[in-house]
Amino acid sequence: MSRIGKKPIQIPEGVKVEIHQNKIRVEGPKGKLEKNIPSEIDVQIKEGMILVSPKSKTKKAKALWGTIRQIIYNMVEGVTKGFEKKLEIEGLGYRASVSGDELVLEVGFSHPVKIKKPEGINFSVEKNIITVSGIDKELVGQIAANIRRVKPPDPYKGKGIRYLGEVIRKKAGKKAVAAAK
């Protein structure tokens, strides 16, 4: 039994939830989201709550139960509050800027790296901090991971793009290893 799957999801004021066959649509003040529901999972709306339960006792249904419940919860949370991820750029001469609908990164390559903004995502840059925000948690996380992948933190000097608050374990260089012998 899924502990997370059993919890009902409270529908806040101003949020409209519709279920049509195998699709759920959540609409709120920040926008609307739509997802497919697997056939093994049953989703119902009762008394201002969303209830998620498995249709059968199969292994796949049990595996999907808590996941689908959390995805629906994130949809409700996204259309009311939204999500954001912050990334930090560290390195001499490394910088980022927003140009139209693109994020332009200058991180030590011979050319600037441009990342196109997908629909529903916003970029903002303040000094060396990039903020990725939107209503879809999965998309916000994926875009933040794509930005980090452009120049991951270097294990020797720590230069690169990292999540805000991420701790990078630095390696000892050749001189430090040779001096220890």
Fold blueprint:
Blueprint: H1 3-6, E1 9-10, E2 16-20, E3 23-28, E4 31-36, E5 41-46, E6 49-54, H2 59-80, E7 83-90, E8 95-99, E9 102-106, E10 113-116, E11 121-126, E12 129-134, H3 137-150, E13 160-163, H4 174-180
Describe it:
There is one protein chain. This protein has 181 residues and is an alpha+beta fold. The protein has two domains: 3-80, Ribosomal protein L6 (Outer Surface Protein A, domain 3, Alpha-Beta Complex); 83-163, Alpha-Beta Complex (Outer Surface Protein A, domain 3), CATH 3.90.930. It is built from four helices and 13 strands. It has helices spanning 3-6, 59-80, 137-150, 174-180; strands at 9-10, 16-20, 23-28, 31-36, 41-46, 49-54, 83-90, 95-99, 102-106, 113-116, 121-126, 129-134, 160-163. The strands form four sheets. The chain has a four-stranded antiparallel β-sheet, covered by helices on one side. A hairpin with a 2-residue loop joins strand 3 and strand 4 (31-36).
Explain briefly what this protein structure is.
With 181 residues, the protein is α+β, with helices and mostly antiparallel strands. It is built from four helices and 13 strands.
The topology string of helices and strands comes to: HEEEEEEHEEEEEEHEH
What spatial order of strands do you see in the largest sheet? 11-12-7-13
How would you state the average pLDDT, rounded?
92
Overall SS class: alpha+beta
Unreliable segments of 5+ consecutive residues: none
Helix coverage percent = 25-40%
